[in-house]
Amino acid sequence: MGLGVRGARTAFLCLWRLFLLLCGIWTVCSQTTGDGKSLYFWETGPWGRCMGSECGPGGSQSRAVWCAHVEGWTTLHTNCLQATRPANQQSCFRVCDWHKDLYDWRLGAWNQCVPISLRTGRTGVCLQGEEGIQMREVNCALRADGSAADDAICEYFEPKPRQEQACLIPCPQDCVVTEFTPWTTCSKTCGLGLQNRIRSVVAPPLFGGLPCPNLTEFQTCAPRTCDGRETVFNLRVGGWSECMLPPPPPPELTSSAAPARTVRQARRRKGKERKGNRDPEMRELIKNKRNRNRLNRLEDDLWNIEVGYQSRQVVCVHRNGTTVSLSQCPHWSLPETYQSCLMPKDCVVSEWSMWGSCTKSCSDPSVPQGIRSRGRQLVRLPTGGGSECPNLEESQTCEPEGNGVPPCAAYAWRTTEWSECRVDALLSQQDRRRGNQTGLCGGGVQSREVYCVQANAELLSYINNNKDKQEGQSPNGQVPSVPPLLSITFEISASQPVDIRLCKGTSPSTTQLCHIPCPVECELSPWGAWGPCTFENCDERVVKKGFKFRRRTITNDPTGGEGNCPHLVEAIPCDDPSCFNWQLVKLEACIPDEDMDCGEGTQIPQVRCINNEGTEVEKEMCADEVYPESVPCMVPCPKDCALSLWTEWSTCSQTCSSKTAEGKQMRTRAILAYNAGEGGSSCPNTSALQEVRNCNEHPCIVYHWQTGPWGQCVEDTTTSTLNTSSSADKSTCTMGVQTRKVICIKVNVGQVPPKKCPEAPRPESVRPCLLPCKRDCIVTPFSEWTECPTSCEAGVNGQKNKQFRYRVVIQIPANGGQECPDVLYEEKDCATPSVCPGYRWKTHKWRKCQLVPWSIRRDSKGAQENCGAGVQTRAISCRQLDGTVADVVQCLKFASSMPVMSQPCQLPCRDDCQLSNWSKFSPCSSDCVGVRTRRRALVGKSKKKDKCKNSQMYPLSETQYCPCDKYNAQPVGNWSDCILPEDIKECGQGYRFQAMVCYDQDNRLVETSRCNSHGYIEEACIVPCPSDCKLSEWSNWSRCSKSCGSGVKVRSKWLREKPYNGGRPCPKLDHLNQVNVYEVVPCVSDCSQYIWVAEPWSVWKVSNVDLKENCGEGVQTRRVRCMLNTVDGPTDAVEDYLCDPEDMPQGTRESRLPCPEDCVLSDWSPWTPCDLPCTGRGDRERTAFALRLPKEGEDCPVSMQTEPCLLNRNCFHYSYNITDWSTCQLSANAVCGIGLKTRMLDCVRSDGKSVDLKYCKELRLEKKWQMNASCTVECPINCQLSDWSAWSDCSQTCGLEGKMWRRRTVVQASQGDGRPCPSQMEQWKPCPVRPCYRWQYGPWSECRVEEVVCGVGLRFRNLSCFVSDGSSDGKSSIVEEDLCAGLEQAVDGDKKIVLEETCTLPCPGDCYLMEWSDWSQCQRVCVKGQRLDFTPVQVRSRAVIAQEPENIAQCPDQEWQSRPCSNGECYEYQWMGGPQLIWCQRSDGINVTGGCPPALLPGADQSCDPLCDKPQSFCSEEGVCMCEEGYTEVLTAEGMLEQCTPIPVLEIPTAGDKKADVKTSRAINPTLPTTVQPGRVGRTWYLQPFGPDGTLKTWVYGVAAGVFVLLVFIVSMIYLACKKPKKPQRRQNNNRLKPLTLAYDGDADM
Question: What is the DSSP annotation of 822-840?
Fold first, then answer.
């Protein structure tokens, strides 16, 4: 009871809740219909396409406008305010297709990348890079003026380009410096000094990073106290001033000066006049001396050298940097304050000249443009460090101008005629026809030569000749305005070949396939039967001798006509010839004599008259011949013996008769019934049942005509036709004759007199023929001589250079034409030029040393008037190699660098020691033994001075050990390819090379000749020859698979050897064992080829014998054999399986032997043929006739039998069957080319059996098939390669890694089963190793200031010759300068050699900048290992050095410089070390300061600010609060983390909630229109219950129905749970209840 009350209460609660739910739905519906219009608003759709009749602004477009509820569903228009209804139409710009050319998108530049943190307000520590966004303006604009247009116009043609993109902003990079160097020593040895330590910059600050820190650190030091007084004053030398000219001398000094040059020249002329005229040799010597003096003076304006002077200051300075009086430095000797110098003069050039003529002198747009140039003259060369000269020449591209410009020379390819077709080139290696190549035919290859000619040479020659004529005519002469080109007649001749490089485009092919027709063999039919004895000519029967003839015909015409066939007629002499004969057709039935019914009688013959060819003629023609007589016969009476009819005569056993063999024929008959005992004629004995007669009784003497081959076609002397070519046919000229030998042959004997043979079939011995024209050899003219090299260097191996010319044979002579000349190639030595082109500088002697004028330096302390340092100059001239004077411009262009024109010099003072120059070192007697010396001597008064004799200060000799030159040779690099000699083209023994390198005792690379080596190690090698696939010869054809009808026959080859080393591949082998090649062709066997031959029936063997009557049941047998059927009848017996078993005659028959007086019938005749088509309604019959009539009162049995014609039993349909095509069959002498494919016809019976073709022929069935067709077997063309090119220049001019290459190309690709092209199309070998010499600076010396402590001085460096092996990591070693003598003086491409420069030596106490550090490694800007598009840079720096503590404040600022570089590396910075020691290290291992993020410093506080106290949040390594996996961050407007929320599966955002921005992993399309309007509060329904027209959607009714069913289900379950329990015996039916399951598939429209 309690359970029932509890169940009822539960059911009541469920019903109540359902009621409340339905009331809620109704309430909602009532609210939507009862509220005011404030809940409705107008909604608009997108504007449609602009429509209109004209293009442009006159179009209109519309859009949809409807009224919607705030919850998203559509309602009636009356619910919305009509006053606020948006317009549904507007005017627009109608875009047409041609607007695409007028409007286009205008793209602005991307603006600066803005970090995302600036948008979100979220800031943090930047560790690697920050993501940003950059924007640009995109507008539609008119192309003409760039004015703005509506974006819709451009969007009509292509979408609007994006306006923003993601970008990456690198973090600010601080300046990165190296570690400090160790502390320097103390700046003072006593007292208070300073120690310095410095560092250099390796990475500049970028993107707002921190600037570079101090590069120098100072600390004081005091080694010890000073004992005495410190030096506090020092001399400081200033820098030299600019070069100045000395002031002009006072006027009073000019009068006492030396007379002017003009005065001196006048005095000389007067002296000459006094001395009189000298001889010519003396005058020439004087002239040459004057020229030398003029060149030495350098008074030309081109040089204009002026010597000036420079001055400098020398002051005394205190240690604190202040300047004091020179008297404070009394212990210093003052240095020179003046020196000579060259006045700087800039280079001066003239104005540009006019443009020269264009190098292109013809008109053709396809020919590249020409070049014209102009120049300017050199007015003055630079001296004294003046500005260098600009370019003296410039050029530009040009086209010829004017009306009379001739056309350019055009070049075209020409070819010779094709060579003879050669088949032997296609034969494989194993082909046995290689030994005997006669008779080869079929596909082959032929070649020709390709050369280049000038195509319009005749036209250009005509134009030039016409131009010369016009220039030679008088002004009044008339000149045709248009050249009469149509009247030009060119001589038909070959053009002169030119350089093949002048022809552009693809050259014609040099090889092609060709075909030699294979001779067709003569095929003959079998011999026919011998004819009757007849006259040779029935019209002229003069001679009584006659002949029997037999003939055969040509079944396949041979090449060259029937003359190449054997004889077709054979003749046998005979007697009694006749032209007409009676021919027996048949014998009539036997008619008994005297009108009896039986007994002896006669058979009348039926005959016809035939001529000697077997044709029936009128019977009157045979009137002279004996008419055939009647033949006696026997009609048996009832009691007589009955015999069968005679069989046909057998084939004659011999074709002719001789003494030992006679021809015989036989026929037989059999006993069909025996005679009665009395009164009847008895049966003959066995011998009478067989008859034999002679046949072919003519003797075996056979004659025939035999012909020899036709001779050559020769001129017919009987005609007077000249052998001239015809314009219509160039291949034939006239008619000739051919003859051949015709003899009479007696078979098995030989030649006999001609009269033995019949004259009528005698072949002709003379026939006309066509004589081919004579073809003369045609060659091109000789080409021009090739150019000789312009240099004076000898050729290869010191031989003279050669030049050559050639001509090409373009037509080979034939038929007795003029032969080709023997010389097609000529060669000669190049003439050595008398004057070798080339220029060189010539230096003249140095002039007098010029000092600073005494008037300027006389006030300086310690100056002497005629001694000291000065400058001396010399003249330089340009010479050709033969010594003649040339323009200086030529040497500037072609000679080496110009020698110096000035040098410092020293005029010795009285106290100076003067010494001569060093002599050369004395020679060494041998290497590594002894010493060598050089000497110098004191000059003049220095010999007597004691201080000059001090050998310590002025040594007069130098000694050094003799050089010890030891060389070591060793191989280097890899072995080259195997290279064949030039006379071996394909394979065989060659050589491979390995380079040799030679080092001296100091491990420096030297020339290989020092090691007595030519530069290579050679080793023999083998290039294996290709071996083709080798197959056996073809086997014999197998027998046709069928003895009657169509079958196949097969032949095969087997694989003997597979190809290797690139030989010809094998044809397709069988799939089973890959060793055989099969060829299968169809074949048809003649069904009458083998026939059954039955012998006569044997005598009856009566089994049930009536001895008295000799008759009754019996058996007859006969022998049946399968025999080969020939024209002459069956000949040889063969195996029985070759004959058709269905057609085999019976060998045994059982029948009844007629008794005497019984009727005897003949054998049954063949069945009559059935009428076609076989419908099953017709009959066929066979008959017999009575050979012996029965006795009176008895009848003969039925003599006719019939049977119905049934399809495929005794009535058949016939049709032709066509076989498949055979493979392409070639001649036995052919390799490939045109062949013949055949197919066969056979006759097929309707039951599928092949039968003799006669059955189909008798029905005259249509044969519509082509039985033979030409086909082509692809020729096995081997790959043909060009010759190897010449070796290329070495890939490197020096070093160990140089290679030379040579290449070849494919001239003819392989075809078919030809030999494939090899893979090696290029070969290399090492270059001889040559040392790499180069000029290289040595290190700068220390700054030197003469005789003082500090100031402006000089530092020097040397230019030395270095050698290396050319590798990137190879070391360089210094060598003698003579080895670099052939190189232009340049260091790393810089021709300006600087060996000294000014420097500053700091005074004690100065604070100064150090020298620049080395450039750092090239570094890229990278973020997270990704290279950004910033130029890589490298940096160098200068640190500050201080010496006095009190001068630190006066130190200059430190400096650093950066420059772009290439191939920069990405470096990363990382904190290293442990808890006690931490440092920053770059990824290349350098310890640095800066670069490592301070936030990642180990032990540093990396907590987030503010703390991450939100649930499921944590502080990342970057110091940013983030959410755990599965949660997403909700950020405030300031970018701070507010909460971590689970990532939702279905998200319904709240409109208007600006409190937070929820990040999701889903991308939202910003272009889609939203249905939530601003200012509207509420949620948006994703499932809209109302349609656009305001009615409920169908799925709402579905949901209501589902709710109703659910309610019924719940009530039913409550009822079942609350009712009384049933009786136990009836509870078994509860298992029939099944739960009801509802499934929702997610369909929104349900």
Answer: S--EEEEEPPPPSS---EE
The 3-state DSSP class for residue 1447 equals helix
In angstroms, the CA 921 to CA 376 distance is 49
Global pTM value: 0.62
* Cα gap 1375→1335, rounded to integer Å: 10
Q: How far is CA 780 from the centre of its chain?
A: 36
113/134 Cα distance (integer angstroms):
5
Alpha-carbon dihedral sign for residues 810, 814, 816, 819: positive
Alpha-carbon distance of 870 to 908, in angstroms, equals: 11
Which single residue is written with the structure tokens 């220029």? 839
What is the model's pLDDT at position 1626?
40
- The position carrying tokens 């035999």 is 706
Q: How far apart are CA 503 and CA 410, in angstroms?
A: 9
Instruction: Please enumerate, as own/partner, the contacts of 1282-1288 that have beta carbons within 8 Å and a separation of 24 or more.
Output: 1282/1306, 1282/1307, 1283/985, 1284/1323, 1287/1325
CB proximity list for 218: less than 8 A, separation 6 or greater: 194, 195, 196, 1442, 1445, 1448
Contact 497, 451 (CB under 8 A): yes
Residue type, 1503: S
CA distances from 675 to 639, 1156, 1266 (A): 5, 6, 63
Residue 1407 token pair = 């604070």
pLDDT at 1554: 37
* DSSP state at residue 756: G
Distance CA 1364, CA 1374 (A): 9
Give exposure, 790-814, as e/b (b: 16+ Cβ within 10 Å). Answer: eeeeeeeeeeebebebebbbbebee
Here the tokens at position 440 are 């080869």
Torsion of CA 1525, 1531, 1537, 1543, to 10 degrees: -20
Q: End-to-end alpha-carbon separation of the chain, Å?
A: 44
* Per-residue pLDDT tens over the stretch 1202-1219: 999 998 888 989 888 888
Core vs surface per residue 297-310: b (16+ CB within 10 A) or e: ebeeeebebebbbb
For residue 469, which phi and psi values (nearest 5 degrees)? -65, -40
Give the integer Cα–Cα distance in Å for 683 and 521: 59
By the 8 A CB rule, do 1611 and 15 touch?
yes
Contact 355, 394 (CB under 8 A): no
**Inter-axis angle of helices 2-34 and 1594-1618, nearest 10:** 160
Positive or negative, the CA dihedral 826, 831, 837, 841 is positive
Supply φ then ψ for residue 694, to 5 degrees.
-80, 150
Who contacts 633 (Cβ-Cβ below 8 Å, separation ≥6)? 590, 600, 601, 602, 603
Strands 233-237 and 1350-1356: what pairing? parallel
Q: How confident is residue 271, by pLDDT bands cut at 50, 70 and 90?
A: low
At residue 360, does pLDDT exceed 80?
A: yes
Beta pairing partners, 900: none
Tokens standing for residue 766:
């003379």
Return the beta strands (E) in 1163-1319 as ranges: 1179-1183, 1186-1188, 1200-1204, 1214-1218, 1233-1238, 1241-1245, 1250-1251, 1268-1273, 1280-1281, 1299-1303, 1306-1308
Q: Report the candidate in 733, 690, 738 with the shortest Cα–Cα distance to residue 714.
A: 738
Task: Please tell me whether residue 1271 adopts helix, strand or coil conformation.
Answer: strand
Rounded distance between C-alpha atoms, residue 1454 and residue 1437, angstroms? 8
Region of poorest pLDDT, from 354-363, 483-492, 1011-1020, 1504-1513: 483-492
Radius of gyration of the chain (CA): 63
